[in-house]
Amino acid sequence: xxxxxxxxxxxxxIDGARKIVVLTGAGISTDSGLPDFRGPKGxxxxxxxxxxxxxxxxxINEPDVRILNWKLRAxxxxxxxxxxxDGHRALLPLQERGVLHTLITQNVDELHQMAGIAxxxxxxxxxxxxxxxxxxxxxxxxxxxxxxxxxxxxxxPKCPDCGGIMKSxxxxxxxxxxxxxxxxxxxxxxxxxxxxxxxxxLTVNPIASVVPRAVRGGAKxxxxxAEETPFDMIAxxxxxxxxxxxxxxxxx
Length: 252
Ligand code: APR
Ligand code: ZN
Fold this sequence. Notes:
Blueprint: H1 7-16, E1 20-24, H2 43-46, H3 56-61, H4 63-74, H5 86-89, H6 92-96, E2 100-105, H7 111-115, E3 122-124, E4 127-134, E5 140-142, H8 143-151, E6 166-170, H9 179-191, E7 194-198, H10 210-216, E8 220-224, E9 237-239, H11 243-250
Helix pairs in contact: 4-8, 9-10
Bound molecules: adenosine-5-diphosphoribose (APR) and zinc ion (ZN).
């Protein structure tokens, strides 16, 4: 646990690192107005039923799960015009100093890229909601193009190429990660001299396993999160507090 007094050590650890891998979760986007999943006000904490839509089998087998999901997206309830916050922006100096090796994000909101992190430096390990694809063929388009069809009256839009089910280009439970993304994330963990895990409960695998993997590879570990994570005990520093407030103080 690092209280404000412990912050100088954290700042020194970050200043001294040359190959920093950052792993972010939903907690870095809550101050942009996007709820997380398992925090006190998390989507699933408040509505366990909502977790159903995130399982691929329910999405495929239950048309009304798809119809509700498309309706929420088309009404903009899921994606009001959210913008990056000070937490996203706090990472930019790492890129400017040339010490940001890779930013692995579990988030699907593209707020890191909108804040100015180079897309080629970001691994969106759980995909993105800004695109939509077919579950049966490799048809891929923008989310906006599909929402136009929903707003035009198609409540469960099908693939224009093969008639298959369409879904946001996010990876749901039951779907495999993109092998290339997972490989990039694991290589980053092996190369890191410092891993900073920010705003994640670190409870979803396989991506959470890059944390102990980086430590085994000799990296130092800083965890920034409001609540405990399963890896707090192997961290060199754990920083509690609100990310958009504390991250700008940690990274100069
Ligand atoms: N400051 C600090 N910590 C915060 C803040 C904040 N402003 N807001 C939320 N948190 C913390 C919460 O306490 C919680 O521990 O962020 C963590 C978010 O954890 P989760 O909700 O589990 O989100 P995440 O770890 O990203 O989930 C991983 O699971 O739901 C699936 O695929 C989805 O990518 C997601 C994955
Ligand atoms: Zn198709």
